[in-house]
Amino acid sequence: MKLLPLLALSLLLAGCGGSSDQAAADEAAAAKAARDAKLAYEREVRDWRHERQERLLRPDGFLSLVGLHWLNPGATYVGSAQDNGTRLALGPPQIGMLDVRKDGTVTLRVADGAEVTVDGEPAEGTVTLVPDSQGKPTVVGFNRGDASFVLIERGGRFALRVRNAMARTRTSFPGIDYFDIDPGFRFEARFEAHPPGKTLDIVNMLGMVEPMANPGRVLFEKNGAQFSLEALDEGDGELFFVFADRTSGHQSYPASRFLYAKPAGADGKVVLDFNRAYNPPCAYTPYSTCPMPPPENRLDLAVTAGEKKPLPFPE
Questions:
Q1: Could you give the CA distance from residue 80 to residue 72 in angstroms, rounded to a whole number?
Q2: Vertex 278, ends 273 and 281: CA angle to 5°?
Q3: Which of 28, 33, 114 lies closest to 79 in space, CA to CA?
Q4: Taking a C-beta distance cutoff of 8 angstroms, is the pair 117, 108 a contact?
């Protein structure tokens, strides 16, 4: 008769051991899933960083900028010869005559024998240049495709932005320095929409003020405190953030950093991942017109994620 209680006790102990083993297995599986998710996230960020550098290094990327020439109303000859009203640092002696007309259109009358292309096709006669403010800008190419310029518009003024694929800033680019990837700087922020049509005045590096669409702001929490950023819309629906923080001028570029995010979902959430924060073009070239962060986007927070200060070029 004593065998029955002993058998019951052994079954009970076996059951407890099985439960403990299952809990340990579940815990191990959860830990593995968390590690796998972290590795997948880090790989995603590293892939994004690789694509970011590839975009910078394209022949027509920001690292190839070599000139920014503001245009006055009226006609001006453009080319590398000294007698041009708009003299470029490279290219044929004369590319043609630019005309900034009263109606806001800009034309280029191509010089005979200039060997110029417009959007990749051989050009002659007079062409109308589309500025970046109206969509994809017209690309005027020369030097057998190694160099080009486009028309940009800022604060109601036009300028030629000149590129050279052989620019030292591109050919000797030292790469990008980053903070360590930190999932703690990836937030599910809350989006608060502004009234339709609201704009925010943004000052660029040249002191020009331009109103930009300001669809709303995002709010997130870090270390028990709440922070917010005003979102801009450049016309493609994505949320664009220009911000500064406690690392600005220390570990990161002084003027600002940029960050993009997808529009808010049906739940009103926006994924704000500062591991994808990056330096503006003006961190690498003086020939850009970067927007500066509005006062609302100067965070009282050290964002130790994303890009650091630009690395020095090799001597």
A1: 18
A2: 150
A3: 114
A4: no
Distance CA 133, CA 65 (A): 18
Strands (E), the chain: 65-70, 74-79, 86-87, 96-100, 106-110, 117-118, 121-122, 126-129, 140-142, 147-154, 157-164, 186-193, 199-203, 209-222, 225-233, 239-243, 257-261, 269-273
* Lookup: tokens for 165: 């694929």
- Which two tokens mark 35? 């590690």
Beta strands 121-122 and 186-193, pairing class: unpaired
pLDDT in tens, 146-164: 999 999 999 889 999 999 9
Is residue 53 within 8 Å of residue 169, measured between CB atoms? Answer: no
84: tokens are 């041009």
The whole-angstrom separation of Cα 311 and Cα 240 is 25
Q: How far apart are CA 315 and CA 306, in angstroms?
A: 26
Q: What is the pLDDT of residues 123-141, one digit of tens each?
A: 999 999 999 999 899 999 9
| Cα dist from 271 to 170, 218, 276, whole Å | 32, 10, 11
What per-residue string of b and e applies to 207-229 under the rule 16 or more CB within 10 Å gives b?
eeebebbbbbbbebeeeeeebeb
CB-CB contact of 140 with 150 (8 Å): yes
Q: Is residue 107 classed exposed, middle or buried when 0-12, 13-18 and 19+ CB atoms within 10 A define those classes?
A: middle
HSE-CB at 228 with a 13 A cutoff on CA atoms is 12
Which amino acid is it at 271?
A: V
Q: Is 170 helix (H, G, I), strand (E, B) or coil?
A: helix
- pLDDT, tens digit (0-9, with 9 covering 90-100), for 204-243: 998 999 999 999 999 999 999 999 999 999 988 899 999 9
C-alpha to C-alpha distance for 298 and 166, rounded to whole angstroms? 36
